[in-house]
Design goal:
single chain, alpha/beta, 21 strands, binds NADPH dihydro-nicotinamide-adenine-dinucleotide phosphate, 451 residues, five-stranded antiparallel β-sheet, 31% helix
Length: 451
């Protein structure tokens, strides 16, 4: 190959693309990134970061209530949505700048506008054609809304971050991460909220005890959960409100309908199929363990390759790919012991195998569970319960799964993930001293297994 414009051309400046770009540049590669929407991708702009800020905002309503039991008398609380939204926007703009600087400081060229693949070594960016050694597709995914009459009246999480005003009532459709998180956010901000899920119990891929616990806890906070419920149509009424026609023939009035029914890989118009990159039926790019597609110079990471759509996974894949391409050290990211949190209210934290997965793989599984009222709520009067569970291989004594529903579940389970990664046995958990009084100490004091 004669003149090359870049060693790596990345399409998509989200978490995975930016990480791959700047680590590759650090290894000496000449790198360019094309981004037509927003630097930082979904996570920074319409995902993890603004969502978590909203979760904090939503939790205050409960905190104000809890404070009374500790002697605090507060005046009537008032919530100002535009102020939260605009403060959030300012913080996101600051983060966009940090992402740009991260690329800039490594000498990565960032271009706006659309980019596509012409063949194995040529890309188009606007009117320019560039010759490159490697191409990385890190375009992520986009909310999917099924087809039904009135689909144009519903919003997705993308729009929920920018609402002009908060509705009085809202319906969230779906039973995954986003549905559960947004139901908690809207409810906490004072919106009368119902979550509608098509199956008998939401969060289908999680440990059953976690799902059941959350299904008990969310209604205590005010969210209406309606399982086995489908939406046939949504109509807009003359007063601007919305009416849902449900599968059982009943109708439901609301002011906002938020669909959180999964996301689809963003691959349209990239020119991938024409140059021989394999796509699955849902559009996700087929890659091998080292993120290489059917065309050896074209790689893909993050949400666009299917699998768990999680920021830390995409960034880890970006680092592994940079190492494979520019250090000659072939690396892949294992999906074993993948920790994850759902920022529901209360929160869910989980790492490793669910009890169901463990029982399918191991002949002798031991399960340790506890459910209790956290110390804080003895005075607050809040009926919230915390649930914790260990799944253990009875033969090797290895801890296979750690699961929790309760305050700071994500923070607590992140530490537990290190233990699982290190292959900790139940004996290691038992030999670990607790920090008293905490909820987390329960994980090292569980003694009574159930087979
Ligand atoms: P999920 O895949 O988590 O959940 C999709 C939900 O929509 C499921 O309950 C599914 O039901 C339901 N569904 C799918 N198709 C339809 C349909 N046609 N009609 C009705 N319901 C349908 O997707 P989300 O949109 O919640 O989130 C996307 C991804 O983003 C997540 O999987 C997660 O990886 C990531 N994310 C991570 C977060 C975190 O780390 N905290 C936060 C938010 C998102 P069923 O189960 O029956 O198929």
């Amino acid at each position: 190959m004669d003149t090359l414009d870049f060693d790596l051309f990345v399409i998509g400046a989200g978490s995975g693309g930016v990480r791959a770009a700047r680590i590759s540049a650090g290894y000496g590669a000449r790198v360019a990134v094309a981004e037509e929407r927003y630097v930082g991708g979904t996570c920074v702009n319409v995902g993890c970061v603004p969502k978590k800020l909203f979760v904090h905002a939503a939790h205050y309503s409960e905190d104000f209530h809890d404070a009374a039991g500790f002697g605090w008398a507060l005046g009537a609380a008032a919530f100002d949505w535009p102020r939260l939204r605009d403060n959030k926007d300012r913080e996101i703009a600051r983060l966009n700048g940090i992402y740009r600087n991260l690329l800039d400081s490594k000498g990565v060229t960032l271009t706006g506008g659309w980019a596509g693949v012409l063949d194995a070594h040529w890309v188009a960016v606007g009117e320019w054609h560039l010759r490159v050694r490697h191409i990385l597709i890190a375009t992520g995914a986009w909310p999917f809304v099924p087809d039904f009459p009135g689909r144009e009246h519903v919003i997705t999480s993308n729009e929920a971050f920018h609402l002009e005003r908060l509705p009085r009532r809202a319906v969230v459709v779906g039973g995954g991460y986003i549905a559960v998180e947004f139901a908690g956010i809207l409810n906490g901000l004072g919106v009368e909220t119902a979550l509608l899920y098509r199956g008998p119990l939401f969060l289908r891929h999680f440990d059953r005890d976690l799902r059941e616990t959350l299904a008990e806890e969310m209604p205590k906070k005010g969210v209406t959960l309606r399982f086995d419920t489908t939406v046939q149509a949504v109509e807009k009424r003359p007063d601007g409100s919305l009416e849902l026609q449900l599968g059982d023939g009943s109708r439901l009035q609301t002011d906002l309908v938020l669909y959180a029914t999964g996301r689809r890989p963003l691959v349209q118009d990239l020119g991938l199929e024409a140059c021989g990159v394999g796509l699955r039926e849902d559009g996700s790019i087929v890659v091998d363990d080292y993120y290489q597609s059917a065309v050896p110079s074209i790689h893909a990471i993050g949400d666009v390759i299917g699998g768990p759509e999680l920021t830390p996974l995409a960034t880890a894949q970006g680092m592994a790919l940079a190492s494979t391409l520019f250090l000659g050290d072939k690396r892949s990211v294992s999906l074993e012991n993948l920790p994850t949190a759902i920022f529901s209210q209360p929160a869910v934290g989980t790492v490793g195998l669910s009890e169901e997965q463990a029982r399918a793989r191991y002949p002798a599984v031991l399960v340790y569970r506890t459910r209790f009222r956290p110390l804080k709520h003895t005075l607050s009067g809040n009926p919230e319960q915390t649930f914790m569970k260990l799944v253990v291989d009875g033969e090797s004594d290895r801890v296979l799964g750690v699961h929790m529903v309760g305050p700071e579940a994500g923070e607590i389970v992140q530490g537990m993930a290190v233990a699982l990664q290190a292959g900790a046995t139940k004996r290691v958990f038992d030999a670990t001293l607790g920090i008293h009084p905490t909820s987390a100490e329960e994980f090292v004091t569980l003694r009574e297994p159930v087979r």
